[in-house]
Amino acid sequence: MRIAILGLLSVWLTLDSSQASDWSTHGAGDFEQRYSTLTNIQRKTIASLGLAWEQSAHSHRGLEATPIVVDGIMYTTSTWSRVMALNAVTGQVLWTYDPDVPKFWAKRLCCDVVNRGVAVSDGNVFFGTLDGRLISLDAKTGKPRWEIDTLIDRDMWYSITGAPRVIKDLVIIGNGGAEMGVRGYVTAYEKQTGKQRWRFFTVPASPDGPFEHPELKDAVHTWSKNDVWTGGGGGTVWDSMAYDPQLNLLYVGTGNGSPWARHQRSPDGGDNLYLASILALDPDTGRLVWHYQTVPGDSWDYTATQHMILADLSINGVIRKVLMQAPKNGFFYVLDRATGELISAESYVFTNWASHIDLESGRPVETGLADYRLEDRLVFPAASGAHNWQPMAFSPETGLVYFTGRESGWVHSNADDKWFALGAENIDELIGEQKIPEEIGFLKAWNPVTQQLKWEKVLPNVWNGGVLATAGGLIFFGTATGKFLALDAADGAELLRLDVGTGIIAPPITYSANGVQYVAVMAGWGGPAFNTLAGNEALLEYENAGRILAFKLKGADVPLPEKIAPRGSIPEQAELTSDEDILEEGRILYVRFCGSCHGVYGSEPMLPDLRRMLPHTHELFDSIVLDGLYESRGMASFAEELDEKEVFSIHAYINHLANTTRKAN
Ligand code: CA
Question: Looking at the predicted structure, is the pLDDT value of residue 246 above 50?
């Protein structure tokens, strides 16, 4: 009897330790808490943490992936949806797979050629590609097993940057593109064959249907009849998912409206379901069980696609099954994940679009200060969000949720340009009497029960990495400026700071192999903020050398990337015209088509700074923009969007901008 019990116990212990030693799913379990029970690396031992190995990701742009580790093998993705399998102990590359994403797809993306990782299940590696394919690879060999097209229309500017999740026998994936005029949906495919099981559209196709499923008939009443349906509606499911196996509910977050402004999208108003919402779906059928809309009638790119963490919390003496999210809109939400009931919501940054969330109705109380129908408005938080896709972490030990974000605002304008609101020069006027915060980045430790800040660490740059929490009492994350930090989870005391020279936006993971605990992270700066290097000394000093870094106790020094030559001052450029109208047309077109990659209003971008073009590039300007001369580098042809006259306006504006910023410096 005793032996039998011991036998059972050892089986249980083996299972438990193997689960703890791997990082086998995106969020370290269905609840997506990003918490590890490993304790070799802890407060007392952290000082000797150093490099175990590094491996190149062959990229100079943003790396956002969460590496997956199963049985000593790490699976991760680099830019352009390329997959790598590595020995998790040595970093040796076992195989790579390049899905050959057509380079012209780059112009269809809002936010860099990124990918947030793979899912691994039963010897299969699943991942999405920038051009909308879902692919299954053999985990041993990297050879493809199946590949399917997830897009309903390949001419629309859809993309996939998010990591798929495996729920039972299904692979679940959504898509991105709400800045680009698409209609959001999430789809489940059978993991063995890739056969589609169900699809849930997040917004109706038109006032008259087709209604692909009954939930769209409910939703259509929240859109105005004279809606501009050509905008696609938006509501893309581009990142966050979580799963409760007991309740058998799959949670997905949906994105912003397309176009951004509701008064353009849905002129007679309405909540516009299911934009900016958390949806609880039955994973077997794809039917909606409940929904909670964070921002009814969103006009500010306030997505609810941010990381969702499930946990069981004691609130007012009762254990509640909760779902937690800190979406872009600046409020931290705690929902009952069985019913969708709002338990609490408090602002975690300065917000001026809404004063608070009414707990009775579950709706935000808008201030009117963010209504830009008639005049430009400076809105807090910014469209990039007080917190964006960077994953949070929850420690059951401290009961705190840790996340990086920022205090920042954005000018929304009702200018002609539908997709990207233009900035304003009359900023003081827009501020008016408001006491606005200084633009800063932060890591916050948030108590979800009391809805209060426990502690925070202020960061010099606003665009930093995701977070890992461990039972060693530690919080790990990387910064935009190339530092990898370990903090005391209880009070935020900085216990370790490694200079890695490469800006980090990805979240770290931890795993153990052969009894050694490792912490690993993708280093490579970029993503949504890649058009401005403001305040990022690492990127002005070192190459943005994309790589995977793995750390262990008693590790080595981290080699720094190659130094780059100082950029120097902006050269004087030829003024191509003095016609103010042409320059203004060039400015608007530049902001719309060029700024998201090459920087706006004179900010120093990560990609080529066009103000610094050399004579050779000026000569080729039309060929580059209209003929796709540099398509292999990711600079697609814009012949479908721009004619020669408009390209001239853009060129003239860039040269004029170069000369004005040159004078200003
Ligand atoms: Ca968006």
Answer: yes
